[in-house]
Design brief:
Protein name: ATP citrate lyase large subunit
Strand order of the largest sheet: 3-4-5
InterPro entries: Citrate_synth_N
Keywords: Lyase
GO molecular function, one term: lyase activity
CATH topology: D-amino Acid Aminotransferase, Chain A, domain 1
Helix content: 25-40%
Shape: globular
Oligomer: single chain
Structural class: alpha+beta
Distance between the termini: 33 Å
Domain ATP-citrate synthase ATP-grasp: 1-108
Largest sheet: 3 strands, antiparallel
Strand content: 25-35%
Number of domains: 1
Length: 108
């Protein structure tokens, strides 16, 4: 369908770029979803322990953390874990906090 008009929900457009990755078998409970949204007061990081192709209503089910514009107020690793990773096994908190911090650094 490359180069042809497509409709996804309420958006119509032409698909020109695709990201294709090999499938790595894994249990469903190891998929996560994260996004970052900019607002006037800073950036919201939304994280849910339910990832996959059909994430669903992220706004309704995600844990949320506002990163203020003033980055001197950037949350500690402990605050990030306590706020965003409530439903994730503690054994992966350090890896995920590191990923979230690095992802945000690239974002800003």
């Amino acid at each position: 369908r490359a180069g042809k008009e497509q409709k996804v929900e309420h958006t119509v457009g032409v698909l020109r770029q695709f990201l294709v990755e090999p499938f790595v078998p894994h249990p469903q409970d190891t998929e996560y979803y994260i996004n970052i949204n900019s607002v006037r007061d800073g950036d919201w990081i939304l994280f849910t322990h339910e990832g996959g192709v059909d994430v669903g209503d992220v706004d309704a089910k995600a844990e949320k953390l506002l990163i203020p514009v003033d980055l001197t107020q950037y949350p500690s690793n402990e605050e990030i874990a306590a706020t965003l990773l409530k439903k994730v096994p503690k054994g992966v908190h350090n890896v995920l906090v590191d990923f979230i911090t690095r992802l945000y650094a690239v974002y800003v």
